[in-house]
Amino acid sequence: MDLKFIIHYSFHFILPGFIAYIFFNQQWKKVYLIFIAAIIIDIDHLLATPIFDPNRCSINFHPLHTYYAIILYVILAIWKKTRVFGIALLLHILADSIDCFL
């Protein structure tokens, strides 16, 4: 296992747990599950060839990882009713952006 893999998946699964527990203490389990469910946006990887490339930067490559989509995720994070979903999607984008820098 390499450092990039460990950091990437820690940002997908461990960091969201800390954020859910610290900022959404009363409902942290529910929020954590929503944060983890944000991985569903990786369905757009099915449109790429190859589907998985460990050296590819997903940001602005896959449709749900474009800058336009990220703007939508920021907007979702602003409103209280969609805040958890927006944060979840932004955390996912943050985790995927790790691949662009390492």
Characteristics of this structure?
single chain, 102 residues, mainly alpha
* Helix/strand order: HHHHH
Low-confidence stretches: none
Measured by DSSP, the beta-strand proportion falls in: under 5%
Q: Determine the structural class based on helices, strands and strand pairing.
A: mainly alpha
Rg on CA atoms, Å: 14 Å
Helix fraction, binned, reads: 55-70%
The rough form would be described as globular
How would a crystallographer describe the biggest sheet?
none
Task: Give me a quick take on this structure.
By secondary structure, this protein is mainly α.
Explain this structure.
The chain is mostly helical and 102 residues long. The chain has one domain. It has 5 helices and no strands. The longest helix is centred in the C-terminal third of the chain and has 19 residues. The mean pLDDT is 95.
